[in-house]
Amino acid sequence: MTTMTKKRPAVKSKTKRAKVLTGKKTTAKATSLMRKTTQTKPKQKKVSKPLQGPLKKTAAKPTSKPRKSSQKVTSKKALNKFKKTHAPKATTPRPKNTSDADEFVGLGGPSTQQMSDITKKTAEAIALLDQIEDIEVALKKTKEDYNAIVQHTLPEMCISSGVWEFKTNRSKVKIKPIVSGSLPKDEVARRNALTWIDKNGGGSLIKFGLTADFGKGEKGKLRTAKAELKKLGVDAVSKIGIHPQTLCAFVRERLANGENTPLDDLGIWTGHHAKISIFGKDCG
User: Fold this and answer.
1) Which pLDDT does position 283 carry in this prediction?
2) pLDDT (tens digit, 9 = 90+) per residue, 88-116?
3) How many domains does the chain have?
4) What values do phi and psi take at 103, rounded to 5?
5) Element (H, E) at 136
6) Helix H or strand E segment including 268
7) Of 8, 45, 169, 261, which has the highest C-beta tally within 10 A?
8) Pair (193, 249) in one structural domain
């Protein structure tokens, strides 16, 4: 007797397999299995693998570590501070139709009011300078008038009246002889005057001088004698003369001794001078 076996149908999926195993309605366990199998798996992100083999050795290494954000902020602040302290001040161009007081305004200098005060004070100084020049001219004229009185007018009046000394309520006046002058400026007349003085006992009063012009770095030539100056190509000027006060004293002594003296040739003039002495102050 042959027995026939019933073939099971091929299970194509896990869901059908679960139904075949139970032969009944899908149980809760089969249902959960079905849900798990039917859920789609999420796609996994591809992770790049680290370089291996020879390529790993040839990979470029970073040259320096990246700066932290705090370091960047600090360096930026320092840079801004440096720019503020060292940056040149902005200048404002001078507008048209401005006065001199506004010329330096905006250049880091004084303000407009300060420059105006400076300009006014400068104008005041210039006005005072003009006054000084006027006063000097008036002073020169006043001195000339004074000398004319004490050297000519007053002595002549006193001598003609026979008065040589007198007093007022403020001063004492004395008429004194005066010898004044200096050697002539003309070279010929000057040489002749010196020759006369030398011949008449005044040779020791004559002083000699030598004047020469030297350039920079020629100090050594100053130590050279007059005879060597021409060899060096230096133009030297020799001077000879007598100090005016020494000359006047020499002539005064000769006149006091009654000796004949060529006053005009010596550049000397004689006269009388009214010496005025104000009480408490000497006027000469």
Assistant:
1) 57
2) 555 555 555 555 545 554 556 788 899 99
3) 2
4) -65, -40
5) helix 112-148
6) strand 268-278
7) 261
8) yes
Is 10 in a helix, a strand, or coil? coil
Is residue 199, in this structure, part of any structural domain at all?
yes
Q: Is 135 within a domain?
A: yes
What are the tokens at 119? 């300009």
Bridge-based pairing of strands 236-241 and 207-212 is: antiparallel
In tens, the pLDDT along 171-189 reads 999 999 888 899 998 989 9
Tell me how far apart the alpha carbons of residues 164 and 177 are, in angstroms, rounded to a whole number: 11
Task: Assess if residue 43 is contained within a domain.
Answer: no
- Let me know: does 26 contact 18? Beta carbons within 8 Å: yes
What are the tokens at 272?
Answer: 């009388």
Identity of the residue numbered 198: D
Which domain, by its residues, includes 125? 99-162
Question: At 209, is the secondary structure helix, strand, or coil?
Answer: strand
- Least confident range from 58-62, 86-90, 141-145, 278-282: namely 58-62
User: Domain for residue 61, yes or no?
Assistant: no
- 17, 185, 209, 211, 264 from 192: Cα distances, Å: 162, 12, 18, 21, 12
